[in-house]
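Support request from a user on the community tier.

User writes: "When I paste my structure tokens into the form, the page sometimes reloads and wipes my input. The last time it worked, I copied everything first. Here is what I submitted, just in case something in the input itself triggers the reload:"
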């Protein structure tokens, strides 16, 4: 049924109105805009992927819950021994045995290079390690705990003492001497790199933390691979 209104036909339209005459290979404006808008994030993605590959290339893993700190070794003193069995990617089992002694745990107003952010206080942890020179001990985890059960790591609360310098927190800590780290594993491969100088059986390292002002740490945690970690208490006077 017709209501008297004429319907337009292609014959009544101009050629460019009846048919889309734009070139078929012309890129959609929205597609170009997305790449342009996100080119900075795409550029940053490459170094992030490289870091992920480096982290995943380390070939030592634990036998049990690999992503949880679920097996504490509570020393009940300022000295204890961490023992752990872990696997290489080729299936070879290894045993780790490291004795760690908490020499001191002291507050610091500042250091030559670092200060705590406003509302925080620096704490210096001095540890002595004893282990066989052939053990893999390079990358480690060190953390503090307080009486309320709160945990503090090394990645926040610290800034450069020089206002013009940018402080970048380390991705991992090194629990070994800089010039004699012992054996390590090359990134992107399973190749073992021997230490240029044999690591001594005993050495010391200092680590800085920032805790909220008024909080006193009651324990120090030391670990290498999940799930095992060693819990030490500060030495008494």
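"...and here is what came back when it finally went through:"
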């Amino acid at each position: 049924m017709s209501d008297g209104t004429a319907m337009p036909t292609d014959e009544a339209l101009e050629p460019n109105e009846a048919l889309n005459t734009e070139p078929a290979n012309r890129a959609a404006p929205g597609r170009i805009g997305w790449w342009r808008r996100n080119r900075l994030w795409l550029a940053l993605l490459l170094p992030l992927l490289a870091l992920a590959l480096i982290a995943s290339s380390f070939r030592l893993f634990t036998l049990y819950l690999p992503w949880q700190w679920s097996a504490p070794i509570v020393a009940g003193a300022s000295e204890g021994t961490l023992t752990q069995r872990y696997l290489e990617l080729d299936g070879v089992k290894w045993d780790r045995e490291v004795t760690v002694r908490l020499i001191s745990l002291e507050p610091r107003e500042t250091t030559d290079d670092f200060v705590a952010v406003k509302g925080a206080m620096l704490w210096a942890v001095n540890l002595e390690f004893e282990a066989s020179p052939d053990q893999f001990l390079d990358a480690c985890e060190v953390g503090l705990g307080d009486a309320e059960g709160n945990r503090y790591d090394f990645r926040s609360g610290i800034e450069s003492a020089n206002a013009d310098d940018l402080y970048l927190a380390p991705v991992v800590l090194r629990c070994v001497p800089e010039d004699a780290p012992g054996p390590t594993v090359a990134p992107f491969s399973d190749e073992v790199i021997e230490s240029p100088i044999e690591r001594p059986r005993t050495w010391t390292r200092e680590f800085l933390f920032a805790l909220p002002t008024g909080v006193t740490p009651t324990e120090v945690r030391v670990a290498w691979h999940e799930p095992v970690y060693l819990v030490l208490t500060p030495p008494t006077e």
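Agent notes: The reload is a front-end session timeout and is unrelated to the input. Residues 15-57 form one domain. Helices lie at 15-18, 29-37, 39-57. Escalated to web team.
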